[in-house]
């Protein structure tokens, strides 16, 4: 990671942290325990990969950062709500997340349930509250896209497919179908909504960007599976080896580590190709792509 | 209930049922089990009191029914998501809802969790997808209001206060504070968003309508508490006597049944008064008020 990009990552991670700090309900406002738990779940952790994608896609498309940051925050809130719910005992039953006790371990199950529910509401509140586009009709379209990405045909649906697949042998296309929903839909939303904050794009440009987003969404998951199989819990900040323990099909269980790493490279290459001929300055988005594929924890 | 109003209730209950039928994901679309469970939770049950309020408030304000029905559906989806999550074992641990096994009893806990999550997304998707106002900026404001009513300063926050109050003696103002959030916020949204679908209202008219909505939100809860204490499980369609069993503070535990009934009447009177001098044809909204206060199950 070169120094310029490192600085960009750091400054945008700080920006999103500060924005979330300011837009989450204050801890001293009733109900205090819920608000404290919401802040605990959201703040001070995570690589903020989805916000970085929104910022980079916005930058590529000349978006005002005061707009891109709203989208970045909303997408991150949806992501964190999904983590809080996924960690619950009735789902993955996990105790460690982003290096800290999971929300229901630190607080309790009903509070964690309400934290997730409230974070989802807050995401849509921010998307409706602040101006994201000259044309408010475009902003309505953006809200619709985020709702679709989060819902039963997107992220939550992917989670349902994941539940059904525990203990089953999936084919590679079935696994891909699951991840296109479970992680892909929201990563795609992060890219597309970031870009929508900027100039108008042609149909062809939107298609290319969409294909790029699909590729990195999958690449992200492949790398995640490799890290879950290889990294330690300490490095990962969440319980390592959970997939194998829970008998979940992963890219590693189907392909093995070596081939999974090759698949991640191939997807990275596809992502690169999708951004060629976009007629935009894509270097930041390519840097974030490398950041996603080459991350070690 | 006179025949005219009975017909209006019936026809609007059918309309909202049919709209929800058409806008919930189809059961044969993947993930099928999740979509089946979403439809199970939403369809074929409930008095649809919040949608009726949206329709009546829309009618009062000359709103096109093709708009009011979107708001009615979105509010009902938020309401049903909250019921599905509230019934989970880590919350109220209930087995019966609207005369049927609760969602997690019929399916399983993780599915019920995702059903609630997905219904919330779908509510915001509908609010953004269909035109609700001439001015799309007004529609963004409506989405923001629904998000606030649902979130940690509204319904979900009320639920958190409820959790904290189990086993405690609350004063009447504390109980009122809880219910203004837990049930009041969404009932208020049902009324206000229904009205927003129509003509522009003056500040004074909005204030009056808002006060009306607060009164019936509380009246609704007082009646609910009385019914929980007096009705049978069969008549209620959900487990009766849960409040006392769970040692929850209610209007009945604080005031007794007789005084609680009087409070409901007083709130009904306040609601009536708020609608006087509104300069609008309020008879339908008054009929719905009576329907809420006089319902027997």
UniProtKB/TrEMBL annotation, chains A, B:
Protein's name according to its UniProt entry: Farnesyl diphosphate synthase
Cofactor: Mg(2+)
Molecular function per GO: metal ion binding; prenyltransferase activity
GO cellular component labels: cytoplasm
A Gene Ontology BP annotation from the UniProt entry: terpenoid biosynthetic process
Membership in a protein family: Belongs to the FPP/GGPP synthase family.
Keywords per UniProt: Isoprene biosynthesis, Magnesium, Metal-binding, Transferase
């Amino acid at each position: 990671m070169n120094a310029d990009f490192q600085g960009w990552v750091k400054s945008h991670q700080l920006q999103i942290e500060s924005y979330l700090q300011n837009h989450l309900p204050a801890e001293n406002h009733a109900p205090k325990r819920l608000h404290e738990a919401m802040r605990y779940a959201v703040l001070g952790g995570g690589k903020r990969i989805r916000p970085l994608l929104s910022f980079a896609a916005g930058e590529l498309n000349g978006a005002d950062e005061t707009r891109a940051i709203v989208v970045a925050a909303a997408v991150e809130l949806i992501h964190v709500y999904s983590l809080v719910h996924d960690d619950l005992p009735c789902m993955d039953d996990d105790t460690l997340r982003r290096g800290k006790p999971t929300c229901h371990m630190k607080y309790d199950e009903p509070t964690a349930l309400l934290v997730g529910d409230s974070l989802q509401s807050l995401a849509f509140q921010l998307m409706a509250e602040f101006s994201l586009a000259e044309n408010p009709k475009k902003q309505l379209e953006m809200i619709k896209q985020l709702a679709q990405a989060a819902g039963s045909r997107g992220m939550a649906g992917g989670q349902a497919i994941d539940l059904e697949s525990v203990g089953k042998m999936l084919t590679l296309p079935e696994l891909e179908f699951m991840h296109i929903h479970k992680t892909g839909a929201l990563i795609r939303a992060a890219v597309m909504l970031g870009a929508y904050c900027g100039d108008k794009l042609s149909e062809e440009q939107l298609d290319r960007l969409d294909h790029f987003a699909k590729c990195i969404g999958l690449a992200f998951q492949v790398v995640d599976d490799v890290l879950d199989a290889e990294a330690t819990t300490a490095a990962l900040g969440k319980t390592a080896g959970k997939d194998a323990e829970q008998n979940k099909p992963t890219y590693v269980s189907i392909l093995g580590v070596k081939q999974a790493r090759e698949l991640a490279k191939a997807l990275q290459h596809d992502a690169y190709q999708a951004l060629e001929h976009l007629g935009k300055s894509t270097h930041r988005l390519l840097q974030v792509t490398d950041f996603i594929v080459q991350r070690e924890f």
